[in-house]
Every structure is written in C-alpha cells, then in structure tokens.
C-alpha cells in the first residue's frame, strides 16, 4: 500500500508520531519514510506544530512520581520489544516479508488508533473542542519542507487558499545576522525566480499570496541584505534552503 495515496492514514500516523503513541518498528519505519519523502515529513511537522500549540494553553504542573515510574516502564518495555523484533527479523526475514509490509503492522494500527483517543483526551484536558479546532484550522493546499544541502529541514511552508496566506514555520536552528534578511522565492519552470516576500526573524509568520503565486514546482530561500532585494533581479545572496512544493488534497 502506498501511504501517499491514503492521506487519512498519513494524518493518523503523523498525529500518532507527534503524540508518541507510534512505537517500535512502526515508528522507525515512519521516520525512515519521513526522511525519504517530503509529504510524510511535512505531515509530521504539521502535527508537531498543532500539538505544541495545544500544550501552550496549559499551566505548568509538576508530575506525580508515579508518572516517572510509568515512563521508565514504557522505556524498558520499548527496549525489550526492539530487541525481540531484531531477533525475529534475524531469525525469519522471509516470514516477516510475507506479512504484507509495514502498513499491516499491528503496532502501527494500535498507534494510529491511540492517536485519535489521545488527541481527544488532550482536547478535554485543555478545555478545547478538538472538532471545532480542526474545522477552524487553516486549510492547507500546498506544503513544502525547505532544507539545506545536507537535507536538514529548516522551514515548513504551507499555503492556506481560504485566507490567501503563506504560513512559514522555522523548524531548524539557522538564524540570520542582524544585518541580513531571508527572502522566499517561487521557482517557476523555465522562468526567473519570483520573490514571495522577505522574512523577519520570528519563529512563525504569514505572507499574503494568491494561489497563482504559489502554483510552482519548488520554493527557495536566499540570504540577502537587510530588507531583501527587488524581485526582478532574483536572489543576490546564497540560496540556503530549497524544496519541492507539493499540492495536498483538501
């Protein structure tokens, strides 16, 4: 089964990964796919951002000592399960292959099911209606994970067609100097780069854009003098991050 052809399953797995309910071999396989496929990586980053926003609404609470005991038990159980999986994989690789691939993994389905349950619990815990939150959440039609030459993700870019906005979230550690600015560029096929805006140093920001502006195969970010450069001349500084722009099914 092609995970990219099943967006609902991808969303469940990304949520489960962000919550920590996707464990063992299923979690490792999901992370391998995320490294190899930009849509999977983008889904994981989007869910991490959603859940991080929910936790900001709660007051800090000191955990009960029993919580740490349970965490320790979970870690021990996870390590034991990993060792068992390694033994099983080494002893019966053909039998493992005959199960129909990692998408039929019991651990994966348990994690995906637990994701839905745990998200609901979190919603109650912070006094939110999760359904209402998701309905009112920004629509995402295009998504890009912009990475450096070493494939390290630095910027998550999504486009909301309802609000006609590009939403950018820094996911890397890069910070430009006080005398420099990052500038976002659309890379049309066979055409010159077109500026989509100059970024400030905030961890997240929004830029006005139309769908025609972002209907391009790729985006890039260059390092420019403070305030950016005119679009007509294209980037003048080094291109630090780039990546394909992927259209998602709304």
Automatic annotation (TrEMBL):
Q: What start and end residues bound the annotated signal peptide?
A: none
Where does the Anti-sigma K factor RskA C-terminal domain start and stop, copy by copy? Answer: 114-239
Q: Which GO terms describe its molecular function?
A: sigma factor antagonist activity
> What domain of life is recorded for the organism?
Bacteria
Question: What is one Pfam family matched by this protein?
Answer: RskA_C
What processes does the entry annotate via GO biological process terms?
A: regulation of translation
A GO cellular component annotation here is: plasma membrane
Its protein name is: Anti-sigma-K factor RskA
Q: Which organism is it from?
A: Variovorax boronicumulans
